[in-house]
Automatic annotation (TrEMBL):
Keywords: Coiled coil, Signal
Annotated Pfam families: DcaP
InterPro entries, sorted: DcaP
Name of the protein in its database record: Porin
N-terminal signal peptide: 1-23
Chain coiled-coil ranges: 30-71
Keyword Signal found: yes
Length: 469
């Protein structure tokens, strides 16, 4: 409504209220008064609407003024008769204003038809499937676990260098020396300043979004899945990003058939074996690059990695190395508003430690000691999963993944060569922050000598997220 109309409305109201009542018959006077009363009631309604509009405009102007004052504009200051323009300073968030503690408590109930390595009984990692009857005890094993439970803290704030972030996250799934234990394990310790990040985080060679909506801990065997220490620089693009990183090298060295073979035996004794004296040697970081494109239907990503895979003999101090490389193509396609198709294809040489159950990076080429040399082991990984949401309360995930190694003649016959895993589940979300459901998992391991071994397990899990403020 314009100002002219508003003024006319007020004038009409004044005219109506100021007109005298002339001497009229009583019936006419009543009719006249009723007409004036109706007109004034209509004007009052109209003026109330005008007042509401004015109040809305005023509130909007106040909000705009408040927003503008939050970002300082150029200010002209006169100092000693000289005009000085002060550049605008953006309002910065304090780190105390954006700090979040998050995580969840998760409990798993598992029945295993076989009996995997006891240090890994909480999950089906195909390389731990037994290769002989009774290797880890009689078939059939029931497990309760809380090792997937997680706790993290993160924060972000603005500085003159750009946004600064900090992330610290751990879980209870012990590995390495703590394998099989419910002990805190560091997942992420990651800090960024602007486009630069450093610490431990998902490898730049990885696409974390490919991980399916499953409840088994370890996940697809053929997936690039590695939290690595690194320094990374990310360049934001219009519809994606490009990143380059220097990553911690950690050669997975295998001496194969010669692990227990004596070196320079003296009489009937064996002072040292090849397994004793050969050691990995890394003096150059891995270099990874990644390009990710965001689209209307999801995203696609290409990543590459180059490695110097070094090894040495502790007895002679002799050193040598091989070159490793890998390419990883992945995508997540939204087939409906919530459903997703997740695909990944990775191939390379000497990239085993970047994959779930990737085996080894370096192995002896020949089956004899004389003239032998180390080679980077070729590897292929495939992931194909589909996440489907039946409605807001129910979802399912189904898929298959495989790892295939082109092993060498120098590796032992009972070493891991190929693995595959398939999963299907039904998950329920009864209320906000709560997940419960069951999953059926099948896995198979094949060794270098061609022997294959499979396992089936059923898992039921309950997961409750910590409430967020």
């Amino acid at each position: 409504m314009n100002n002219r109309f508003r003024a006319a409305g007020f004038a009409s109201l004044l005219m109506l209220t100021s007109q005298p009542l002339l001497a009229q018959p009583e019936g006419e006077r009543i009719e006249e008064l009723e007409q004036r009363l109706n007109q004034q009631q209509q004007l009052i309604v109209e003026q109330q609407r005008v007042l509401q509009e004015l109040r809305g405009e005023l509130d909007a102007l106040k909000q705009q003024q408040s927003n503008e004052s939050a970002i300082q504009t150029d200010v002209l200051i006169v100092e000693n008769d000289t005009a000085v323009v002060v550049e605008p300073q953006p309002v910065q968030r304090s780190w105390t204003e954006n700090i979040e503690i998050y995580g969840f408590a998760m409990a798993d109930m598992i029945y295993d038809a076989k009996r995997v390595d006891p240090d890994w009984e909480d999950t089906l990692r195909v390389s731990t499937i037994p290769t002989a009857d009774g290797q880890f005890g009689p078939d059939g094993n029931f497990v309760f676990s809380v090792r997937q439970s997680r706790l993290g803290i993160k924060s972000s704030w603005d500085t003159s260098f750009g946004e600064v972030t900090a992330l610290l996250e751990s879980e209870l799934f012990g590995v390495g020396e703590d394998a099989g234990q419910t002990t805190p394990r560091l997942r992420h310790a990651w800090a960024t300043v602007g486009n630069f990040g450093m610490g431990q985080y998902w490898s730049n060679f990885m696409d974390a979004d490919v991980f399916p909506n499953t409840i088994d801990y370890w996940g697809p065997t053929g997936m690039v899945f590695y939290r690595n220490k690194q320094a990374r620089y990310t360049i934001p693009l219009d519809n994606g990003e490009f990143a380059i990183a220097l990553e911690d090298p950690d050669t997975a060295l295998d001496v194969g058939k010669f692990r227990d073979e004596c070196i320079d035996p003296v009489g009937e004794s064996c002072e040292s074996t090849f397994g004793d004296v050969f050691n990995r040697w890394n003096n150059v970081p891995d270099v990874s690059i990644r390009y990710r494109a965001e689209t209307d239907w999801g995203h696609w990503q290409l990543a590459g990695i180059g490695r110097k895979l070094g090894f040495e003999r502790r007895d002679t101090q002799d050193r040598d190395y091989e070159l490793g490389w890998g390419l990883n193509a992945s995508t997540v396609v939204r087939t409906t508003e919530r459903d997703q198709l997740k695909l990944q294809l990775v191939y390379g040489e000497g990239i085993g430690n970047y994959l779930n159950d990737g085996g080894v990076d370096l192995a002896p080429r020949l089956a004899t000691v004389e003239g032998n040399e180390a080679v980077a082991v070729p590897l292929l990984g495939i992931v194909a999963y589909y996440d489907h949401y039946w409605n807001d309360k129910w979802s399912s995930s189904v898929g298959w993944s495989t790892t295939r190694l082109d092993t060498t003649a120098g590796q032992a016959d009972n070493e891991f060569k190929n693995g595959q895993i398939a999963q299907i589940n039904l998950l329920h979300y009864p209320t906000e922050g709560v997940l419960m459901g069951g999953e059926l998992i099948w896995g198979e391991r094949e060794d270098i000598d061609g022997a294959s071994f499979s396992d089936v397990r059923a898992q039921f899990s309950v997961k409750v997220n910590f409430p967020r403020p």
